[in-house]
């Protein structure tokens, strides 16, 4: 018998043996840490849900199925590590089925869901139940964040053992009105977090309250007030606090949805000092700016708010520099009726899980970033930060065969009517794109082809860091 294992060699005379379940033929494999010159034309052989071979010539007769990827680029499966699928409790806005279907149609193969559901994901029982229910409905693989609250200090270790991907803290309240733990409690939670990273919604509540009160006193309905009501000092203040906590507790932290130039500067400085700080930004901060408020109004209301063009430019710069580790969407759907309420009553949140990849690929075509940089921030980055690498985020032999196949020439127009979320409220309605995901593979199975959902609800699996690190039971405070 020939030795097939991971060799990638042409099977030669053994034409009758089906060596792979699927062969992706003739695509260009994108190297997340390289440049266009390090991308290789390759055939990918997939067996039992894993990548079995990368070769410059797999005999097509060795595949059960062959997908012609000529002219297309193959990225490790895209990960959106910040979504709100509203399940359980707020499923009139979204549920794990509709949210993950939208993700798959947008070329995303793994998501990480936030814990501000009803009930919040703050205890082991809630986490276990959420994982079970999501596992029945999800089209994509999924990780789950656990919430840190004022009264769940003792649950920290249990949440880690139950498979929490990481922890989430709302320093500033947002949808769900979840209060931050008192600093002492948070300190203790961070000491007990082991290798799990803590994600911060970094806005300062008191500053937001002060500025919001001022802005609400201004007559008229000028939507640019949404940005002035939660100014960048609020974000910078909270980012500085999170970084200081990381420094003193030793815990690794992650700054969600960075929206401001001045908080980016704090993160740059923290990284320079070698602190375990990672950061994400979202399409709304890269493709919109305060000049869009008159046109989009509350459709672009989000916490933290979309800011000025200088902030937007700084964030693109942060991606190029490697200060931004990942692009996530903060997919936060609400009904159209809710989003179209008056300025101060409309809930914050933009549904973006399905539109992120076409937008970002359009930016690649416009020369904003390279396709390699996109693979770095959309796949490798989140996989590394959240402990899923190399099963996710890589094209390593014997790792999960998750791939997003993109056509950089495919043109399209984002239309609300075509989106798969429960509610079609995208601020990008009418946006013309060049570059699109044309297929997504999860563990060797197509979950999307040509924008059509081809996977099954319940195929998605619960994922968590490869080496669950038990929290130190008597963590020295
Ligand atoms: O705009 C937001 N919406 N920001 C958040 O932090 C929460 C999110 C939501 O859950 O709707
Ligand atoms: Zn947030
Ligand atoms: Zn969020």
Describe the structure.
- The chain is an alpha/beta fold.
- The chain folds into 2 domains: 20-75 and 397-453, Urease, subunit C, domain 1 (Roll); 78-385, TIM Barrel.
- Helices cover 29% and strands 21% of the residues.
- It contains 14 helices and 17 strands.
- It has helices at 96-105, 124-137, 156-161, 183-191, 205-216, 225-228, 232-249, 261-272, 283-287, 293-296, 309-321, 336-339, 356-365, 371-385; strands spanning 20-29, 40-47, 50-55, 63-68, 73-76, 78-83, 108-113, 141-147, 166-170, 198-201, 253-255, 277-281, 326-327, 403-413, 432-442, 445-449, 452-453.
- Strands 1, 2, 3, 4, 5, 14, 15, 16 and 17 form a 9-stranded mixed β-sheet that branches. An 8-stranded parallel β-sheet has the order 6-7-8-9-10-11-12-13.
- Strand 9 (166-170), helix 4 (183-191) and strand 10 form a beta-alpha-beta unit.
- Helix 7 packs parallel to helix 8 (261-272) and helix 8 packs parallel to helix 11 (309-321).
- The chain is globular and about 70 Å long.
- The relative contact order is 0.17.
- The model is unreliable at 1-16 (pLDDT under 50).
- Bound molecules: (4S)-2,6-dioxohexahydropyrimidine-4-carboxylic acid and zinc ion (2 copies).
- One zinc ion binds at residues 174, 201, 256-257.
């Amino acid at each position: 018998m020939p030795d097939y294992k991971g060799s990638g060699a042409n099977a030669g005379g053994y034409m009758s043996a089906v060596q792979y379940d699927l062969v992706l033929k003739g695509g260009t494999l994108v190297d997340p840490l390289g440049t266009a010159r390090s991308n290789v034309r390759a055939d990918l052989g997939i067996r039992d849900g894993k990548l079995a071979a990368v070769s410059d010539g797999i005999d097509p007769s060795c595949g059960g199925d062959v997908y012609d990827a000529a002219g297309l680029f193959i990225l490790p499966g895209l990960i959106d590590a910040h979504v709100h699928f509203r399940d359980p409790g707020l499923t009139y806005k979204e549920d794990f089925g509709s949210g993950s279907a939208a993700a798959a149609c947008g070329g995303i193969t793994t998501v990480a869901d936030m814990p501000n559901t009803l009930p919040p994901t703050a205890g082991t029982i809630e986490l276990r139940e959420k994982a079970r229910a999501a596992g029945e409905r999800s089209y994509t693989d999924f990780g789950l964040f656990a919430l840190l609250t004022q009264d769940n200090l003792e649950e920290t270790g249990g949440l880690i053992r139950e498979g929490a991907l990481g922890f989430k803290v709302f320093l500033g309240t947002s949808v769900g009105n979840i209060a931050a733990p008192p600093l002492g409690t948070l300190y203790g939670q961070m000491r007990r977090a082991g290798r799990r990273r803590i994600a911060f919604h970094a806005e300062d509540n008191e500053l937001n309250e002060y500025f919001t009160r001022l802005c609400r006193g201004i007559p008229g309905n000028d939507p640019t007030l949404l940005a002035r009501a939660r100014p960048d000092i609020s974000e910078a203040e909270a980012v500085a606090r999170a970084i200081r906590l990381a420094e003193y507790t030793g815990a690794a932290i992650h700054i969600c949805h960075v929206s401001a130039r001045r908080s980016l500067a704090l993160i740059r400085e923290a990284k320079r000092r070698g602190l375990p700080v990672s950061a994400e930004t979202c399409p709304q901060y890269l493709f919109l700016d305060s000049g869009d408020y008159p046109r989009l109004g509350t459709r672009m209301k989000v916490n933290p708010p979309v800011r000025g063009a200088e902030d937007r430019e700084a964030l693109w710069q942060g991606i190029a520099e490697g200060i931004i580790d990942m692009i996530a969407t903060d997919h936060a759907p609400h009904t159209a009726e809710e989003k179209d309420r008056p300025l101060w009553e409309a809930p914050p949140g933009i549904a973006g899980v399905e539109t992120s990849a076409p937008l970002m690929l359009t930016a690649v075509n416009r020369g904003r970033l390279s396709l390699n940089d996109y693979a770095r921030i959309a796949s490798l980055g989140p996989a590394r930060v959240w402990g899923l690498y190399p099963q996710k985020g890589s094209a390593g032999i014997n790792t999960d065969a998750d791939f997003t196949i993109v056509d950089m020439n495919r043109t399209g127009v984002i239309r609300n009517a075509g989106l798969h979320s429960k509610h079609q409220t995208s601020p990008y309605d009418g946006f013309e794109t060049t570059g699109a995901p044309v297929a997504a593979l999860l563990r060797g199975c197509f979950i999307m082809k040509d924008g059509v959902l081809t996977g099954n609800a319940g195929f998605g699996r619960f994922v968590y860091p490869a080496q669950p690190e038990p929290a130190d039971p008597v963590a020295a405070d």
